[in-house]
Write a structure and sequence with these properties.
Elements (H helix, E strand, L loop, with lengths): L1 E6 L9 H5 L3 E5 L16 E3 L4 H10 L13 E4 L5 E2 L10 H5 L1 E2 L1 H7 L6 E4 L2 H10 L12 H13 L4 E6 L11 H13 L4 E3 L1
Parallel strand pairs: 1-2, 1-8, 2-3, 3-4, 4-7, 5-6, 8-9
Length: 201
């Protein structure tokens, strides 16, 4: 059975390294904060990068993704948020907070971190609005689905069959403001209860 493992950035207390490194496809996020612990193995086929607001600007300005020692092994880069407001530069933060939250830095992330040779996937607007419907977000809104939820929605649509096992770990449904964590937790738990994923907390 084809096995996909999706690893969030929460602290990990159990050793999942064998599970992760034996998987067919492993997806991590941003700077993969729990990677260094060794408890989530070393495999990383896909790196899903928040392309808007503070994370997107930080990745561009400080080239933090380029410095990840596992980046050479990453095959695909996913950008989860399909917004039309493309950043013109990354040195100065936009004064308008609402605009900043939806400013797309993907162009600069790719250039500054030398990622253009990777396979690049932009999750589309249809998926974004489906995720918003799941989470009871009516756009325009200050809330958007998290990168983790967007990636999981994409994986379920692309790979969600009986011949594929999807394991999710490292998610605590807490973090930066601007994401509906309570709603995301309910939806992901519902996916687990329906047998669509295996959720390891």
């Amino acid at each position: 059975m084809y096995h996909i493992v999706v690893i969030g950035n929460a602290d990990i207390n159990s050793d999942h390294s064998k599970l992760v490194d034996s998987a067919d496809l492993v997806i991590r996020f941003n700077e993969a904060r729990n990677y260094a612990s060794g408890l989530t193995g070393h495999k990383c086929d896909v790196l899903c990068l928040a392309n808007t607001s503070h994370p997107g600007r930080t990745f561009s300005k400080y080239k933090t993704i380029k410095k990840l020692h596992f980046i050479k092994d990453v095959i695909d880069i996913w950008f989860p948020h399909p917004f039309d407001c493309t950043a013109k530069q990354f040195w100065l933060k936009p004064f308008n907070k609402k605009k900043f939250k939806k400013t797309d830095y993907s162009k600069f992330i790719l250039k500054e971190n030398e990622l253009k040779q990777k396979n690049i996937l932009f999750l589309n607007e249809d998926l974004f609005f489906e995720a918003c419907m799941d989470l009871n977000i009516i756009q325009p809104s200050n809330l958007i689905p998290s990168s983790g939820y967007m990636a999981l929605k994409y994986i379920l649509k692309q790979y969600g069959t009986a011949s594929v096992k999807i394991t999710v770990l490292g998610f605590t449904f807490t973090g930066a403001d601007g994401h509906p964590w309570h709603e995301e937790k309910k939806c992901v738990q519902a996916f687990s209860q329906a047998g669509l994923i295996t959720l390891l907390l």
